[in-house]
Amino acid sequence: MIKSVYHRDIYKFLRIxxxxxxxxxxxxxxxxxxxxxxxxxxxxTLILPLxxxxxxxxxxxxxxxxxxxxxxxxxxxxxxxxxxxIFVMGVGGYLLGRLKDRGYKVNLKTFLVLSVFxxxxxxxxxxxxxxxxxxxxxxxxxxxxxxxxxILYTVLVSxxxxxxxxxxxFSMAQKGGDEN
Amino acid sequence: xxxxxxxxxxxxxxxxxxxxxxxxxxxLYVSVYHENLFSYVICKTVLPVQNFFSEIYRxxxxxxxxxxxxxEMEKEISDLKxxxxxxxxxxxxxxxxxxKNIQYEKYLEFKKKRxxxxxxxxxxxxxxxxxxxxEFTINKGKEAGVCEGNSVITENGFVGCVYKxxxxxxxxxxxxxxxxxxxxxxxxxxxxGIISGNIKLCDEGLTGLxxxxxxxxxxxxDMVTTTGLSGMYPxxxxxxxxKSVGYDDDNSSSCAVVEPFENIRKVRxxxxxxxxxxxxEIAKSVIEKKTEDEVKS
Lengths: 180, 297
Prior knowledge:
Radius of gyration of chain A: 17 Å
Number of helices of chain B: 8
Structural class of chain A: mainly alpha
CATH topology of chain A: Arp2/3 complex 21 kDa subunit ARPC3
Low-confidence stretches of chain B: none
Oligomer: heterodimer
Number of strands of chain A: 0
Number of domains of chain A: 1
Number of helices of chain A: 6
CATH class of the domain at 116-280 in chain B: Mainly Beta
CATH architecture of the domain at 116-280 in chain B: Beta Barrel
Shape of chain B: globular
Distance between the termini of chain B: 64 Å
Largest interface: A-B, 46 and 41 residues
Order of helices and strands of chain B: HHHHHHEEEEEEEHEEEEEH
Number of strands of chain B: 12
Mean pLDDT of chain B: 79
């Protein structure tokens, strides 16, 4: 029994380490100039699919904290107003975590459905709050050439982030099970 | 009351409350001491990883040759042909100017000609996907002597200015952004205006020269340089070439589209101008003009 609890804690610790490493790597890749090629002027926000994946995997408290951490990291870089991303991603993470706690079954299909609905909202909010879009000139150009490509690109890479996490976590859990 | 005590006992509410208190505390700290602790901690954590990936990508990019599609090649050939055609048509004076322009474009030559200007070399390490105007992060910050308002240039021309400095990093606003207001003039005619971009021009890698007097002699192909009137930027830094001239209805003045000499969307290595002659001084002409205006009013 004690050994089982010990293994569970180790597994949880490793999982959190894996999430943090992944967050740093994805954030860095997302920021490296020209690493991810632009598609019609848009580049993906890799942290969003990670937020979705981890929140749906872990549940509300962890998801809330994870959302706040992701938001803090995002806020530090474009840095127009610190706090917007923390709020958006914190609330987003919490709501996603609630879904998991209420027994929402996550698989590739349901994840895709969620990413199609949630990622556009979060990206749109990010642009809106960062740039005060309603007051900007050429709003149609911003939407067509930046926001929509960014949304599509992010949704496009989301399944890869999800599947990568899924496979790594699955193998980690299996290893933990063997030891038990 | 039961409802309120229920909310107060809620763990999520407590976490949120705690976070709000921490945020408020940090905001208070920032406003009092002008130091962002979060920013410092994040920079210290993320910067090594970001530098690492930036270096890997840069090394890989140097090894793997740039692959161009046939369309890009065709476009490049047609551009070069038109360039050659225009070069054939130029006069001897223009040729002399072009030669000088090439000299200006080279960093070393520039440095020799501008010994009063001191630089810090830096590299672009981050471009956020949500930036509309290609703002970027460089790998030099407070500790290297970078300050807010410093000009950022390359051997080809003006790129932008630093708008935020932290330990180890600084953020640069480019001349494609509408938030930048840079006084610039046409070399040939001497007409002045304000460099400021908008999203439509930005998407094509162009910027605008606005607030030009209606009676001007600016023509396509003229070169634009900084005037240095504000004392914030060195004067005579190359900015770009006039692509077209038009009329600005909003300001009742002329405006022009400027093609920057540097490809700002792809720039990797830059120079931060940390010192130059006349830094912080407003040109006498501006003061005199202001005094005249005051007397008139």
